[in-house]
Amino acid sequence: xxxxxxxxxxxxxxxxxxxxxxxxxxxxxxxxxxxxxxxxxxxxxxxxxxxxxxxxxxxxxxxxxxxxxxxxxxxxxxxxxxxxxxxxxxxxxxxxxxx
Length: 99
Ligand SMILES: [Cu+2]
Fold this sequence. Notes:
Largest sheet: 5 strands, mixed, barrel
Bound molecules: copper (II) ion
Number of domains: 1
CATH superfamily: Copper binding periplasmic protein CusF
């Protein structure tokens, strides 16, 4: 291979790794432990969430972006969710029951 081809191949590989890592990090698996509708908060036990800088499994409280999220799930449900770190704290942006 010429050097140019090798560089192009390396870049393509790096790009595909970056894209797949982002896709995996976006959705986090967890279990609902507690729901506080009046406060707009949910307690989730979840696995590692690299996108949020959480390398270890943990149980923690999240805010929700939309209160309707809290009506779609109940305590004990297995879920997959997406969250972001906001000024007000970690916030769930999407959630669905795990299949
Ligand atoms: Cu966490």
